[in-house]
Specification:
18 strands, Rieske Iron-sulfur Protein, alpha+beta
Length: 331
C-alpha cells in the first residue's frame, strides 16, 4: 500500500512527496526505446530491460541532454549526445571518448525507483517506498483505460472519484438520474491504517455498467488506496455482474494530471473495447467540470469552501491528506 509521507526536495530543489508511488506509463508503451515521462514536475526517462523497468531523471550528468533521446543497449541506457551509458541504478558504465576510464560515483545519473503493477509502470521519487497500491481479491479480468490528461491537481481528481452527489447532474442516464438524489447519510469507517473507506452505500443508476440494459440499485464500496489513488467496488442488485474500478492518478505538475482506470470485472462477455468506451464516456463528462474548478489545487482548509453532509467522504480524504503530510497538489 502506498505510504504517504512529507514533501521533500530533490537535489535540484523540486518539491516531491517522499515514499509515494505513481504510474507514469502503460507497460505496453515500453518497446525498443526509452519513454519520456514527467512526475511531480520532474522529467524522467523510463525504459524496460527484459522484465525489469527503470527510471532515471531525464538529464545526462555530462552535458544535460535528455536521456530519453538515447537508446537502450545491452548494458543500459546510452545518451544520444556523447554515448555515456548508464545502468538502471544510475551508475555510469562507459564514457566512449575515454574507453579505459572508470567513471566515479559523481558521474551517476539520478535514479527513481520503478516497478510494474496493474499493467502500469510505477515510479517512486524518494525511497524507501512500500509498494504501489494493491487491489486485493477482485475479479481476475482486468481492463486498463487511459491515460486522460486533465488540467487540475491529482487530489481534485481523486475527490471527484469519491463524490456520489454529482451523478445526477454530471452523468444523467448512466450513473445518475434526475429525481434520484444520493444518500447523504453514510458512515465513513477508516481502514486499519487510517485510510477513509465507505463499506456500503446504495445508489440508483439507470446504466451502472457497459453491459447494463436497465436501471438497478447498486451497492457501492469506496476505499482511498493512497494519496493519488482510490478504489470503487460496485455490485448491482439481482446478481448482475459486479465491477471494481481503481483510479490511479499521476501528478505531472501540481495542476496537471494523467489518469488511468483499471477495471476488474465479473463481466466475461462484453468486449474490452466496449468496456473502455463506457469508461471514456463517463470520464469525458467529468473532465470539463474538473478543469473548471478553482483553485485547481485541492483546499485542505475547511473554511476555503462550503460543505454539506454528502461531502463527508471527500472531507475525510482531505483530512487524511492533511494528517499524512501530503501537500503536492493541495493548498
Amino acid at each position: 500500500m502506498t505510504a504517504p509521507a512529507a514533501t521533500v526536495r530533490d537535489p535540484e530543489g523540486t518539491p516531491v512527496p517522499s515514499g509515494v508511488w505513481v504510474p507514469v506509463a502503460a507497460v505496453a508503451d515500453l518497446a525498443v526505446a526509452p519513454v519520456a515521462a514527467r512526475a511531480f514536475g520532474v522529467d524522467l526517462a523510463v525504459w524496460r530491460d527484459g522484465n525489469a523497468v527503470h527510471a532515471l531523471v531525464d538529464r545526462c550528468p555530462h552535458r544535460g541532454a535528455r536521456l530519453s533521446l538515447g537508446r537502450i543497449v545491452a548494458s543500459g541506457l546510452q545518451c544520444a549526445y556523447h554515448g555515456w551509458t548508464f545502468a538502471g541504478d544510475g551508475r555510469c558504465l562507459r564514457v566512449p571518448a575515454q574507453p579505459d576510464f572508470q567513471p566515479p560515483e559523481a558521474h551517476r545519473a539520478r535514479r527513481w525507483h520503478a516497478c510494474v503493477e496493474h499493467e502500469l509502470v510505477w515510479v517512486s521519487p524518494a525511497g524507501p517506498a512500500a509498494a504501489p497500491p494493491a487491489l486485493g481479491d477482485l475479479p481476475a479480468r482486468r481492463v486498463l483505460s487511459g491515460p486522460f490528461t486533465v488540467t487540475t491537481s491529482a487530489p481534485r481528481v481523486v475527490e471527484n472519484f469519491l463524490d456520489i452527489a454529482h451523478f445526477e447532474f454530471v452523468h444523467p442516464g448512466t450513473l445518475g438520474e434526475v429525481g434520484q438524489p444520493p444518500p447523504a447519510d453514510y458512515p465513513v469507517v477508516p481502514t486499519a491504517d487510517g485510510r477513509p473507506c465507505i463499506a456500503s452505500v446504495r445508489v440508483w443508476q439507470p446504466r451502472a455498467t457497459a453491459a447494463a440494459t436497465c436501471g438497478h440499485w447498486v451497492d457501492y464500496r469506496y476505499e482511498v488506496l493512497g494519496a493519488y489513488s482510490a478504489l470503487l467496488v460496485k455490485q448491482p442488485e439481482h446478481g448482475a455482474p459486479g465491477d471494481a474500478y481503481a483510479l490511479f492518478v499521476l501528478p505531472v505538475e501540481e495542476t496537471v494530471s494523467r489518469v488511468w482506470f483499471v477495471q476488474a470485472t465479473a463481466d466475461t462477455t462484453t468486449p474490452e473495447s466496449t468496456l473502455r468506451e463506457f469508461q471514456h464516456a463517463v470520464f469525458a463528462q467529468d473532465q470539463p467540470v474538473l478543469e473548471s474548478q478553482q483553485p485547481r489545487r485541492l483546499p485542505l482548509d475547511r473554511s476555503a469552501e462550503r460543505h454539506c453532509a454528502a461531502d463527508r467522504l471527500a472531507n475525510a480524504y482531505r483530512d487524511w491528506l492533511q494528517r499524512s503530510g501530503v501537500r503536492y497538489g493541495t493548498c
